[in-house]
Amino acid sequence: MTELSIWTARRSVTIAAPPRRVYQLVADIDRWPALFGAVRAVEHLGVDATGERLRLWGTVGGRTGSWLSSRAANPKRLQVRFRHESVLPPLVSLGGLWLVVPKGGGSHVELAHYFRVVDDSPAEASRLEQVIAATSGTLLASLREAAEGRWLPLAQPVEVMPA
């Protein structure tokens, strides 16, 4: 059996804010519904030695729904790795990395996604890369606005939506 190709979608942004502040916004998943319009709610499902499991509700690529995700935050490296445990076809798997790197007096943030598609279809991979790129661009723009102080998410209770 042939192994499917790993496709990559990467987007980045430079932010005029300290790396630690930027990382804290990325790592604080409870603020995501206030920070990122695509994320509506987050439910914590558990923590183990490798990270945490979450259910997120939101809209991606015009699809509204929920997905299970595992993530591992590394404050020393200013990175958060994630993997979606449940994906819908044409995806076979999806994971990625948020990486914050000091740059001058600010930060450079990369959001990378790694995915596999059904039948290793280049057409589907290209379409999904465009969807992921658009979503990533929106997430990074919101992150920059919040980190640079043009918009600060308010502390608010996290609303848990039924599965």
From TrEMBL:
Organism for this UniProt entry: Actinophytocola xanthii
Official protein name in the record: Coenzyme Q-binding protein COQ10 START domain-containing protein
Alphabetized Pfam families for the sequence: Polyketide_cyc2
Family annotation (SUPFAM superfamilies): Bet v1-like
Highest taxon above the source species: Bacteria
InterPro entries in UniProt: Polyketide_cyclase/dehydratase, START-like_dom_sf
